[in-house]
Amino acid sequence: MHELPVWFEVATFVGLTVLLLADLLYVVRRPHEPSFKEAGLWVSFYVSLAVVFGAVFWAITDAQFATEFYAGWLTEYSLSVDNLFVFVIIMARFRVPRHLQQEVLMIGIIIALVLRGIFILLGAALITRFTWVFYIFGVFLVYTAINLVRHRGEDEDYEENAFIRSMRRVLPITSDFHGAKLRVLEGGKKFWTPMIIVILALGTTDLVFALDSIPAIFGLTKEPFIVFTANVFALMGLRQLYFLLGGLLQRLVYLSLGLAVILAFIGVKLVMEALHENTLPFINGGEHIDAVPTIPIWLSLTIILGVILVATVASLIKTRGQFTTAPDTTEVADSTTAVGPAASAEAESTTAAAAEEAGRDGRPQR
Question: pTM for this one?
Answer without folding.
Answer: 0.76
